[in-house]
Amino acid sequence: MQAKGDEEQEKNIDYLQKWFEDNPKLPNKIDRILLTRFYYCMYKDVEETKKLLEINYAIRNDYPHIFIDRDPTDEDTVNTFAYADMVPLPGLTPENYRITFLRLCNPDPKMMHHTEDTKAFLMITDCRFAMPDVINADSNPLLSEGEVQIFDMNGYTMKHVTRLSIRTLRTYLKFLQQAFPVRIKAMHMINCPSYLDKMLRVVKPFINKEVFELIHFHTTGLETLYDHVPKDMLPNEYGGKAGNLSDLKSEFTKTLLEKRDYLMDANQWRTENV
Fold first, then answer.
1. How many angstroms separate the Cα of 35 from the Cα of each of 17, 52, 130, 271?
2. Fewest C-beta atoms under 10 Å: which of 155, 189, 212, 256?
3. pLDDT-based confidence at 4, cuts 50/70/90?
4. Per-residue pLDDT tens over the stretch 70-100
């Protein structure tokens, strides 16, 4: 038997799903797990969830070359995954947050194509957000209550910064700050280079104060990172027990390919009035 709170939530999600499908400003359909994430992100406030949904899909459809016209098997995406690791780590933190780990596996700046790389990362998040984060011991699916991102800055140079697309950067940060369906709880920058200040001068104008305060810069090793995230949840290469990053990446890539039809289904993402 469902608890009263569960029954109310399911009724609200049913209502939001119908509202979504009937709304001419939105696509024809939405994955129920993704819709639930929007609902959780707005602390289960139905009207605020509606606002977030409309903002999210308006931004997507304003920039379809980043958010809609995509294929996880195309050459650009394969290139991105050849030089960068973007890997959701297994499990949830004690606060019920999910961790995503990002780093270069090939530091050659010529491999970087910022717009295509951003598109690839958003495919990863869209894939993930349509799936449970964890299946618990009772076989119940669980969703995180927030996101933690860890960026290993090792290998990044000012040449990488010169390859940034300011338009793409502005669009991505707007989406992250105004429309992301999960709350960002922290961003950790590890192995920060000595010229970090120069890098920040490029991106800081596009980051609002609230988000910038979530960024932690780790300049003296990983011990300070362990103060924020459970060490055991990190990849083996970073002192943890989650497994080798290459294995975790390979495993998630299979999941991404399994979700290819979903990611490319225009009915899930494109609005009719565009």
1. 8, 11, 9, 16
2. 212
3. low
4. 999 999 999 999 999 999 999 999 999 999 9
Q: In this structure, are residues 174 and 59 in contact, taking their beta carbons and an 8 Å threshold?
A: yes
**This prediction's pTM:** 0.93
| Whole-angstrom distance, CA of residue 115 vs CA of residue 160 | 13
